[in-house]
Amino acid sequence: MYRSAESVGTKAAGPVQSLVRIVVGFLFACHGAASLFGVLGGAVGTHGGTVPFGVWPGWWAAAIQLVGGTLVALGLFTRPAALVCSGSMAYAYFSVHQPTGLLPMVNNGEPSALYAWIFLLLATFGPGPWALERLLPAGGRQARPVAAVDQAAVNA
């Protein structure tokens, strides 16, 4: 039986959205763990060390990375956590990278820019169907995948 690419894409949208959330959240949390605990090569520029406790903005950024990335990866409070993560990466891009050059290719700000936009996407569209927040009492209403929202609009 022939299935259109659109129907396959619609069915795959939710799981792919969840997989992107899990991978991006995990990678972001790894950055925080590296900076706070000296694991995985340590904080950037410290030769395997950590960011000193409470130092602005490095320690706070690392805390957001660890906590926010973990929440996003698990699919708990995804929208607010992703919004905070997006904002922290936008701040990092404009305060650290952009002053040294206009474009991300020039100023080494590609990771910050990509994280900012991907987290904004997750904050907008939600966690997808494979999220722990779906187990919370109100989670089923808020965590529907985009395809389900589109289908609900068609059925209305």
Describe the structure.
This protein has helices at 5-37, 58-74, 78-97, 104-107, 110-125, 139-142, 146-155. By secondary structure, the protein is an all-alpha fold.
Principal-axis shape equals globular
As residue ranges, the low-confidence spans are none
* Percent of residues in helices: 55-70%
- Head-to-tail CA distance between termini: 29 Å
Number of helices: 7
Radius of gyration based on Cα positions: 18 Å
Q: Tally of extended strands?
A: 0
Mean pLDDT over the residues? 87
Structural class: mainly alpha
Largest sheet descriptor: none
Q: Kindly estimate the percentage of residues that lie in beta strands according to DSSP.
A: under 5%
SSE series = HHHHHHH
Compile the SSE list and pairings.
Blueprint: H1 5-37, H2 58-74, H3 78-97, H4 104-107, H5 110-125, H6 139-142, H7 146-155
Helix pairs in contact: 1-2, 1-5, 2-3, 3-5
Produce a short descriptive summary.
Helices cover 67% and strands 0% of the residues. With 156 residues, the protein is mainly α. The longest helix is centred in the N-terminal third of the chain and has 33 residues, at 5-37.
